[in-house]
Amino acid sequence: MEKAPPTKRPRYDAAFRAEALRLASESRSTLAAARALNIDAKRIYAWQKAAQPPLPADPGEAAEVRALRAANKRLAQELEILKKAIAIFSHPPTL
């Protein structure tokens, strides 16, 4: 029985990674950005994790940083929702 030849994993340069991260942050989801770029979503999640600054060594500070990051993410999502609502309600009704 013959084995299939090993396939090379694609290498992505820094510019492509930066564009993928930008698209994921502007997109409705990381999964949607991965589909648009035709790459695995796990790869973008790994790039997002690597792009974050490391947590402090102190457990108390690390917990605080995690909480602040979660709050920041939630507030960014709320802001996007409000922007969309303003866009919807700013159009005059068509009769």
From TrEMBL:
Listed Pfam families:
HTH_Tnp_1
Q: Which domain of life is it from?
A: Bacteria
What is this protein's name?
Transposase
Q: Which organism is it from?
A: Hymenobacter artigasi
